[in-house]
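pasting for ref. prot 1 ->
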Amino acid sequence: MRITRFARAGAVLGAVSLVLAACGSSSSSSTAPAASPTDSGAATAASSPSAETSSAGTTTERPAPPAGQAATAIGAGEGELNLVAWAGYAEDGSNDPKVDWVTPFEKESGCKVNIKIGDSSDAMVTLMKTDQYDGVSASGDATLRLIYGGQVAPVNTDLVPSYKTIAEFLKLKPWNSINGVSYGIPHGWGANVLMWNPAKVSPAPTSWSAVFDPNSPFKGKVNPYDSPIYIADAALYLMKTKPELKITDPYALDDTQFAAVVDLLKGQRGLVDSYWDTYTKQVASFEAGSSVIGQAWQINANIINGDGKVKVETAVPSEGATGWSDTWMIASKAAHPNCMYKWMDWITSAKVNAQVAEYFGEAPAQTKACEVTSKGFCDQFHALDAAYADSIHYWTTPTSDCLDGRGKICKDYAAWVQAWTEIKG
């Protein structure tokens, strides 16, 4: 298996000014036609914000996205499809002749696929703004930027047969929908787990305190993720262990909450052996024995255990975990919309979604994929476990307008970036 997922490491979020500008106004420009209320699955343009209930139980106003229209039918393919994708999501056999789900799609659909690898969410947003691409495999930290920026359109899920058996816990979520309108087809997901070497860490840890408590017995052996988004992991820990801070969303932190989280992370610095931003760094650190515990992706653990130099175990601790979910989205100005709809159905069909998930190292969004993955794969990645999925706080972009509905009193991502520089010293 060729591991390609890790192009995203160290490129989780950014360009928050785009988000703030887009989310602060419903007047973002788009040349997409206005939606018709009669279109199945289509978005209806709104001139005023609509109310939603936040996780904190308060009511917050979310501005309507730019006017857009979902397709009402799929015609013949246009003969070409231009995609922006994470490495490993659109394999055509050029990296490994045995790994190819693009060529069969081209033969079946008549759509020649041109792939542009996006090595970060920021890069994907920038590429989609050129209007040269028909679709993108966007992570949760980029999706709202694309929606509110007018780069992507609503999706008529009735025209994507595979959508019917996509896991329900991934549908119509804050990162892939607005006001009950779908803006994409879920592709794959995962949690940022706690990983440890059981030969050095015993008993098995059940809390993130193992990496955050200044009195942790693993001083000098902790291996955290190197990104400003890791601030959310510390916030999640304090959300559960310091209720007096009243944190309700690890991505929505006011001045007091943010200061407490930053202090925690500065204190953690004394526990750290090293930070990792690519899988190779974490694998090397654990195999060398310099690190024995830290936040990880499940695939990192699989590689380490596959190498056989050391053994590691993983779990989602009692406080829960952050994570990520990716979505295929169609460009609002797609030149080849029929081919894109065909692709969204193909890539999330059982056989293909299973192939991608196993190659990439993630839980497939398609529940039927688990019928054709290798034995034990879906169990390992908790693919059908709704409770596990619900325990994840998926990556999103912090904005000054608090995501939990408290108003414009929260630290935006620019503040997170600055704080992370200070945390690492």
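and prot 2 ->
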Amino acid sequence: MTNKNTPISAEIVNKALAESNLQNLSRASIREVVRLINKLEKASGQKFIRMEMGVPGLPPSKIGIDAEIAALQNGVASIYPDVEGIPELKNEASRFAKLFLNIDLPAQCIIPTVGSMQGGFAAFLMSCRRDATKDTTLFIDPGFPVQKQQHQVLGLKYESFDVFNYRGEKLKEKLELYLKTGRISTILYSNPNNPSWVCFTEDELKTIGELATKYDVIVIEDLAYFGMDFRTDYSLPGKTPFQPTVANYTDNFILLISSSKVFSYAGQRIGLLAISDKLFNHKFPDLKRFYSSDIFGYATIYGAVYALSSGTGHSVQYALAAMLKAVNDDSINFVEGVKEYGQRAKLMKKLFTENGFKIVYDKDIDKPLADGFYFTIYYPGFSSNELLNELLYYGISAIALDITGSEHKGGLRACVSQIQLSQIPILEERLKIFSQNHSSNN
């Protein structure tokens, strides 16, 4: 508890914390922190600098909205969608994979899901059940904490390691320590990474892919922030450079592709679960323990996805199909539309570091880190729980790196998406007060 003059009344913060039943903010889930900040904003009457949740902060694609409205007007709301997905979406998604990833993915191998969250859930149900001797997922951390929560809900085993000290040539040796045990069914990571924003190189992706083939492991690559490593332009359809992917180096892959960030279409909950052609058609006898078919793709659709939701919202499939078609036809540049996130990150990181904060994940091997959707911070002398608590008095929120699998126990994840450029001066003012009140820590 702070005893100094702060932008948010100590009495209000202390009361909200006491009523929250959150014993340790560094272990709180993202949604629990959201609930706490909502309460603090209401009680204080002041808007927080909200960095705790990756909510898109840009307008949704009008192309998607118009297509969805048209679909609703045509009556699709009264019709169950095919669980495999509408042909228009599957075909455009297949084109998108070729034009922006330079990989051949047949339309049948791409399944619309209720956001990447459901896509991941279905992928875990499949990848961890295909072989009774392989029952553990390996998370290359830091990562999205809810994916571990999904494993806990499903009763699935997982192990993890923080990749920061195992980049480049060190990655192979570290991975093999786990893969040699024979227990690992799945490798999971995001690229660009949530929360550190580091990006795997082609050599690292090749290492992951080749080891996945060697040890018969499925790689689930989370591409929620597709094309958002703004250091390289991945926005031109059918032209190099392409979005880096492990799919170039193994047939044992599943891709999670989201519409939430690149199209700012998070509210309608639609994503894509893309499975390699070889894996989709592969037979795994152990799948018959849970599903009627031992064919991986068929069981994914009619065993996992069907049981989870009986298909993805009908009208929103037309929205995503239209957005992908516009991108594929080069009618719109989807990367250009989200570059503002990089601009926000650059400004915000500068303010934090000028006021005594440090960047946790500050290098991409030997290169400067990209400015993007997330960055990571710490303040000398504070644990993550202490820092999260203290920042509340200054009207600033974030989440702890503790729940992401990071080894840096004093770090926080900061998301830039909800911070408008008009709020930058407010952030600067609050950070200056924080720095003045804690100058003895530096």
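The domain at 62-328 is CATH 3.40.640.10 (Aspartate Aminotransferase; domain 2).
The two ends are 19 Å apart (CA to CA).
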